[in-house]
Amino acid sequence: MRIRDLLLILLLCASFFARAQNVAPAAGEPIVINEDTLFKVYAGQGMFNPKERAEVITHRINSLLNRMDFNPDSLTVKNDTSISVIFYKSQMILALNDKDAAFTELNRPQLAASYLSTLKKKLGNVFENNSIKQIIINILEAVAVIVLLICFIWAVNRGFRWLKLKIIKAWESRLDKLAAKGAPVGYANRIFPLINNLLRIARFVIIILLVYLALPVLFFIFPASKPMATLLLGYVLTPLKSIALAFLHYIPNMLTIAVIYIVTHYIIKLVKFIAKEIEQGAFSVNGFYPEWAMPTYNIIKVLLYAFMFVVVFPYLPGSDSKIFQGVTVFLGVLFSFGSSSAISNMVSGIVLTYMRPFKLGDRVKIGEITGDVIEKNLLVTRIRTIKNEDITIPNASVLGGHTVNYTSTAKTLGLILNTTITIGYDAPWEQIQNLMVSAARSTEGILPEPSPFVLQTALNDFNVSYQVNAYTDQPNKMAVIYSRLHQNIQDKFNEAGVEIMSPHYSALRDGNHIQIPNDYVDKDYKTPGFKVKPE
Q: Closest Cα to residue 493, out of 432, 534, 447?
């Protein structure tokens, strides 16, 4: 009993070692026909190792495909006690033994039946694709695709031609309407060629797209060109797939950016609401003027958006790219160098806003320019003179020079207008002051209170300088008020018979006519003669 068990163990060991010697690499040697792997050979046979055996089997199968009378149904299998052979008619294709079955979960007859089924199916497809009938069918299908492509291109051309005619008719109708209204129509003739070129480019792009999509269909019809069809489709589908995947992966960052933007947007809306309320006087803040409200809101808005961009920047696609960062730095440097004067004006505009030297509608004098402020922004201040000249002054120039505001205290303290005349020493100063005050009081636009007053500003060689000062609350009518004041001064002095010695006037009083208009001279007045006293 023990000897029998020992012999059984020895037989099992011998069988194991025999199997171990015939085991091929786990990968096996493939049988490839027309770039299609039918099955693999794992064991050698006779004098052939697995690789050589695979080459022989591949050669036999290819020889079958070269036969014009090949019929997959003529493939048969014959199973013996130790071997299974697949024949094509009387020609042996391959032989399977128990070693081949040992690498699968099937026994030898089952493995042979499986290989037979695979050969019939695969070789039948290959032969069918290479048959004359199939080639003719493929050619007809290709012709159909080409004809269909030509029809699509024809339809695209007709469609764009129809669209072009519709646009021309609509454009001519519009030109007629504009011409009927007397509006200039020259710009329309310049825009139409642009629209025509855009239509031409769109038509060309659509045709190129149709041709590109038709090529994979043509290549897919013929088995030999199927890889090219796959390649062409890959040029389109691969980028689209990459874009779709990138979009899906970017959704979390997109949601983060959306949340940051929404929060910033509503914070800015809240700041704007508060600024509007302060500007309209709904409530006030000590030391904060209502005209500061909207400029402050604009500054806060810019700062909040800048902060939002800084927070959002890491979530932007490609923000970690060196190229993206380099372009960003380049644009920043370019902006800094190219906008130095603009930034200077913007800073000056902000400073002027909080300095409050003037506001819209004020009559001001900036440098040598006098007029009303009609616009002020971060970059420039615009002045309209009394001659309706609109003058634009950079804010940096406004901040760097001196500004006179005639309106700021006109409603409270009153703006003092003044003008100077010179009168000879022979006229009593009390009379001169009374006449000047009377002229000021009778001038429209001069306030009765505070009362006008006169200053004697200089004792000149031939006359005395008298300066009348009068209050007004209408600084925007300064030129008109000055003109009326000068008229009234002339009338009052002429009525009183007082000569105005402006400009400097010297005369021999004994021989000359008095310097007063004839309407104001007495009828009995006679020009005195020259008095000469001999020594």
A: 432
